[in-house]
Amino acid sequence: MTSSPYLERYRQLGTLDQQKNQLIEDLLQRVTDLEASFAQEKLDHERETRFNRDIQLHEMELMQQISQIKTIMDREPFVVVLLDGEGIIFKDEFLQAGEEGGRNAADQLYAAIHSYLKSNLPSVTTPKIMMKIYLNAKGFGEQCARNGILTDPGAIHDFIRGFNETMSCSEIVDVGSGKNSAHNKIQETFQVFLYNCHCHQIFVGCPSNTEYALFLEDVSKDNDLTGRVSLVEGVAFEKELDVVKNSYRIANFPDVFRSAKMAPAWATAPWKSTLPTRSVLTPSPSRQFSNLSNPPALSRTSTNTSASGVALSVSTPNPIDNPPEFQQVVRPKPTGSTAPKTVERNKYGQRVDRLDFKSIPRDDLNRLKKLKLCNYHFLLGECPNEEFCYHDHDRKLTKQELHILTAIARMTPCRFGLECDDPECIYGHRCPQSEPGKKTCFRGDSCRFEPVAHGIDTNIVKVTKI
């Protein structure tokens, strides 16, 4: 037997030893790497354990601080009642009872608010109730006397004194006769309390006008804020607030506030007759044009009609038949001119307002609306309430601004509608937003004008001479 087979076997065993040694080295390196990874993981775990422990301690401290802050926030809860005396009016029996009526009114309103909170906001426990009512005391007293509620307008101060003496957090504030005084004070006070953590609810009572509608519409854009506000409804809300009223809670207190309007204090009251007598009076339009279907009785006088030969009649209201909600507007003093005045009509005998609303810049129209100008003063020449009128009489208007103010007045429907024969009537007889032949406008059913006032033919073929 030769040595070659043995040599070959030796070489194979040597190769196996090398592979074995390499395996041992690889295993040792792997163990070293795992030990290093384990040490790092152990270090990270210990660090995370310490971090979690610190976080838990910090969280406990924060929860304790939050609990302390919540205790502070809940310590003096209160609600605020902000009322504009022009739109929210106490019932007659309170106003007539003087100081005692003022005290009873404050007590009844407090009880009504407390009952409302208990039913609708049970989470608000034992809150203080802060009530602030803003009104023009002199003007309001005269309005009450005009409506026969008070015999002396100065007696309203007795009611105010009784109301203010009842509770330390409740008061009636006399804002004077300035324009939008009550609105401005309510808006500023509202902003102060809206983000106050102690104030859990704000009650707002206001008349249905554009200023409050715009203000409440801005607030309604934030859903987180609307839940903090409730609207107080005395007289039913009109269309100015239709857009925004659904965004808020509505609170009704029929045992405290009037649900019917009072006639304005502009007409002469039985206790005051300082306005001069005028021979020509015209009634203002009703707030809702729908009253056109049942207009008051009219007296008729003959007139001359050109172009068609058809005799039309001049409609003048009988003062006795005027309902109390229509104020009397004094016409300008007659001039020496005897030239007849005219009313333009289409072939159907419908009155046509010769005014192109599309030609008026929208920005100028909105700007003039915000100025709160007196239509009677600038368009009719004389305001029946010069001394107490809330609208502007002092501004100097250009010819273009007078033209725009005429358009603004035409946006209010005349209660005599298309049959109106008053040549000096400043109100609208057809919808300014409608086009001839179209029986509706972009406002649809919410338009202030009746359907019959839409799609009017504007071609003038008849002129009624007055």
Automatic annotation (TrEMBL):
Residue ranges covered by zinc fingers (C3H1-type): 368-396, 430-457
GO molecular function: zinc ion binding
Domain C3H1-type: from-to ranges: 368-396, 430-457
Zinc-finger keyword on record: yes
Keyword annotations: Metal-binding, Zinc, Zinc-finger
Region (Disordered): 282-346
InterPro entries associated with the record: DUF7923 (IPR057683), Znf-CCCH_tandem (IPR057654), Znf_CCCH (IPR000571)
Domain of life assignment: Eukaryota
Protein name: C3H1-type domain-containing protein
UniProt keyword RNA-binding, yes or no: no
Pfam family for this entry, one: zf-CCCH_tandem
Compositional bias of kind Polar residues: 282-319
